[in-house]
Amino acid sequence: MTRTGFVHQALCYGADEEFLEGTLGYVHEGLEAGDALLAVVAGDNIGLLRDALGGAAREVEFIDCLDWYHYPSRTLGRYHAYCTARERGGARRVRVIGEPVWTGRTTFEVREWMRYESLLNVAFADSGHWILCPYDTRVLPDEVISTARRTHPELAVGESGLLHSDRYEPPADFYAECDEAERELDESAVSPGGTSTEIPFERGRTAVARAAATEFARGRALAEGRVQDLVVAVHETVLNAIRFGGGRGVLRLWSEPEYLICEIADGGYGSVPRVPAFPGHLPPAPRAASGHGLWIVRQLSDLMTERLGPDGSVVRLYFRR
């Protein structure tokens, strides 16, 4: 099938045979067209696809999805880097079979992976790449399967068929829905209250925030490499708060069973430039004058949430313990 422009499809399968029906033709078409082929799928599906492809499997790069789908922003960064490298290497397009890992996730984490799937439509909108995302209906919750129809413009059917999803939602609308769901979850959660450490900061006095973040992370036995990631992410976010949030703010640090959390709050940016549509989620152009800060913060953090506005902004950085 000859296609131009970015293609993003969901493949809902309920049997091994259905997985192969939805992927084999896709791979063979890509190989005939000279596309680069990357399959990031579950281990069992790697075996199925290798066996079915036979000698042609040598032309496909296979990666176990457990080694790739750790955290949404870093996964998007990996795909972006992979596709960019193949473009520079002369590939006509990159075809990806990308199977996210949904099991073992919290409600918060599942929502961020749903957001990720929607954001792919923005991140690769100007590319000619093709991403096919398998969803195993035998093991995944109905909510995950249902949401696939909202985050993928097309649904792959059988060996070569497709349907346009009548439930697809524009990424901006889906992103806003995720934000609202997180806001409701935050409001119903127990406040850190007296269990958090608060460190005021202001222009010219950011070292105190870096020192507190370092002590906090090391005191909770975070690996040294991740300590440095946390400190850099906090520092970059503090600088943004100073630049756009009135020159001062507060850093709050606390622990939860699964994550260390760093919250940076400021008093708002008034009439300073508007908030970007998808702050820090999309890789900036290499020569762009701005937009790198929050992208770097998302790459260093495991998860990040933000509420950015003229009357006050709150950014939370999550680092798995």
TrEMBL record:
Lineage, please?
Bacteria, Bacillati, Actinomycetota, Actinomycetes, Kitasatosporales
Asked if Transit peptide is a keyword of the record, the answer is no
Please give the Gene Ontology molecular function terms for this protein: protein serine/threonine kinase activity
Known Pfam families for this protein?
Answer: HATPase_c_2, MEDS
- What residues does the MEDS domain cover? 8-153
NCBIfam families recorded? RsbA_anti_sig (NF041045)
**Name of the featured protein:** Anti-sigma regulatory factor (Ser/Thr protein kinase)
Q: Which domain of life is it from?
A: Bacteria
Histidine kinase/HSP90-like ATPase domain residues are 203-318
* SUPFAM superfamilies in the record: ATPase domain of HSP90 chaperone/DNA topoisomerase II/histidine kinase
Q: Which UniProt keywords apply?
A: Kinase, Serine/threonine-protein kinase, Transferase
Q: Where is the signal peptide?
A: none
